[in-house]
Amino acid sequence: MAHDWQPDFEQLVDEHQSMVFSLAARMTGDRGLAEEIAQDVFLELDRHLGKIQSPEHARFWLRRVAMSRSADALRRQRVRGVNLWVEIEESHGAATEQRESPLGARLEGLLAALPAPQRAALILRYQEDMMPEEIAATLDAPVATVKSQLQRGLKLLRERAESQLREFVRTSRSAEGA
Amino acid sequence: MDEFERGLRQTLRRRPAPPSLKRKLMERRDWQQKERQHRRMVWWQRLAASVVLCGAVGGAFAWHNAEERRKGEAARQQVFTALRIANRALSRMNAQLNERARDGQ
User: Three-state secondary structure along chain A?
Assistant: First the structure.
């Protein structure tokens, strides 16, 4: 029974901190800000813990609030005239490039340059493995809009990847040869 | 799903959260709980102070009213006593006048 489920805050944090942090980090491009957003999201969860009915509900709620908080943060930064993504590969990317392939880091950089709604849809689709209907529910948007954002985002990403990554592969090959 | 999408999925794997995230979160949670508790206590203190103040003002008002009523009653009694004394004096005077009138005849 779903209603017999008793939410345990610490367990939820352990289980979902990586998801919430990754969503915020990829949306904002700032590790510090992502950590702050993740904390805010979990504190809000703590206040609404009584309304959470099942583990699936908790996951859905966390994704939804994480995406909305990240969008708010991006909006605030835009108002202040700060472009967080300028710093992404210097801060967020720097720590991860050691673990990830340089090609992956480049791909992530290209994703970062996409418009926020397309980026949000792609992150939920490929990081969280969600279907367009679930993404639409999470982002509170019509399914048709989400599908078009996914298509457009993927097309844009593919085009940019084709031109930029080809060049990257060529440069890395020549560096390996030398 | 083609090769590109598979690569994208591979790239967009979840990243581990910083180890400090949970610790900082729990610290903020504790602090917020203490703050909420403190705010609740202050609220109750204010409520208690307001009740005491209302009681004191109400009591003072009631006491003042009762005192006014008591003073009024005392003044009425004094007037009645004065009237009784005057009435008795007038009756006595009337009796004396009647007596003199009878003696004169």
Answer: CHHHCCCCHHHHHHHHHHHHHHHHHHHHCCHHHHHHHHHHHHHHHHHCHHHCCCHHHHHHHHHHHHHHHHHHHHHHHHHHCCCHHHCCCCCHHHHHHCCCCHHHHHHHHHHHCCCHHHHHHHHHHHCCCCCHHHHHHHHCCCHHHHHHHHHHHHHHHHHHHHHHHHHHHHHHHHHHHC
**Is A154 at the interface with chain B, CB within 8 A?**
yes
Task: Sort out which chain B residues have CB atoms less than 8 A from A42's CB and list them.
Answer: 25, 29
Check: complex ipTM more than 0.90: no
Contacts of A18 in chain B (CB under 8 A): 14-17
Q: What percent of chain B has pLDDT over 90?
A: 85
- In chain B, what residues touch A94 (CB-CB under 8 Å)? none
For chain A, which domains are there?
Answer: 1-99 (1.10.1740.10), 101-178 (1.10.10.10)
A104 in contact with B at a CB cutoff of 8 Å? Answer: yes
The per-residue pLDDT for range A76-87, each reduced to its tens digit, is 887 766 555 544
pLDDT, one tens digit per residue, over A67-109 is: 999 999 988 887 766 555 544 444 444 444 445 567 677 888 8
CB contact under 8 A, A21 and B32: no
Q: Which pLDDT value is given to residue A162?
A: 84
